[in-house]
Design goal:
single chain, Metallo-beta-lactamase, Chain A, binds zinc ion, about 30% strand, about 20% helix
Length: about 290
Amino acid sequence: MTTIPSGAKYRIGGVDFAIVNDGTYWYDAGAIFGIVPRVMWERAQPELDDRYRMPLGLNCILLRSRGKTVLIEAGVGGKQGDRDNATPAEEGTLITSLAALGVAPADVDVVMNTHLHADHCGWNTIEAADGSLTPTFPNATYVINAKEWEDATHPNERTRATYLERNLSPIADRLHLADGEYQITDELIFVPTIGHTEGHSTVVIRSGQEWGVYLGDMAQHVAQLERTAWVSGLDILPLVSMETKKQLMDRAIDDQALLVFCHGAYPGVGRMTRTAEGYRKWVDEAPLPEGSK
Ligand SMILES: [Zn+2]
């Protein structure tokens, strides 16, 4: 089994959390960079495999807030076919990462999906040997934006390949569908950030004077967070996406918020800064030292 790093620890105010990893997802780089010409994006992303795919991190968050154990995002999953474009190919990556932190699936109280594309909610469900599907986290409430659920369960020709029924129908009676902002605890708020999909949401962690945000699929590469016009070719509403990103990044720069980037190289945590020339620049944030209290 390939060893992947997992469990990097961070803190926002009084909230400690860990970045758990579901491996690496390989996706067509041209689709990700959209209308940006290759001669420009290949300087930011020189690494491609022989099928012109780039590696995307699958960073998820495990945190505890006010007595609740919360998993933010659920990777590509381990059902048959889920890991065809992911490495390591073995099943169990996210679940193994949680186990390393002493967390069993039954311990998780809340699962949050920023949206329901297949690389963000795969571990919502697991498949038994007889092919039957059940929720992976048997005691969890799954928090999803109401519009996202509606769109995912009524896919169209463009979205059908990524809104997979096997990730959705087994959790249909475990949902909390959020209509707009939804507070899980006073430290944890699910906030709509429209663009990648119409129901896309991010998760704000707020404690004391500090805040941070789990960005979901607001971008797939840090260069897209730095450059306003570099909007993903996967976004359903690219112009809205551009505006959403600009507003959030400006606020994050002003407040020096901690940003957790799903598809960044592990652990995908950093802060946005502004250069003397006025450009946005991502700076990686190192995890807390091992064993820090
Ligand atoms: Zn994604």
